[in-house]
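Hi R.,

Here's the chain you asked about this morning:
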Amino acid sequence: MIEKLTIGDLARATDTKVETIRYYEQIGLLPQPARTGGNYRSYAAEHFTRLAFIRRARKLGFSLDQIRELLSLADQKDRTCSDVDAIAMAHLAEVDAKIDALQRLRHELNNLIQGCHATKVRDCRIIDTLGARVELAARPG
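And here is the predicted structure, written out as tokens:
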């Protein structure tokens, strides 16, 4: 069982920067901890569990707003999972859209690379396509 932890102990235990823990407290994702007589933060097992949840969700790419919603739902133990499923499905759709965009980008870059057979930069199709050889138009004098 986790006893009271300092912010440094919590940071090490969850592989989270101290500044990040403070930020999560400021935005309300992590509840404010109790304070010791010397006014140091004193974290309990609930903080560790909640921070571990946040860290796992962040690694899966959930936004802070999505995590806030998930945490709110997690605190309502008797609710159905449909709202949780909806958040996860929406996030999956976002991931799929990013994958599609990256695949299109990969295809475009591959075509660009395959189409460039130059041996000198002056003849490079990639440089030409990127527009690095833009010539300044003569300015009227």
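One quick note: The helical segments are 7-14, 18-26, 45-59, 64-74, 82-114, 125-130.

Cheers,
M.
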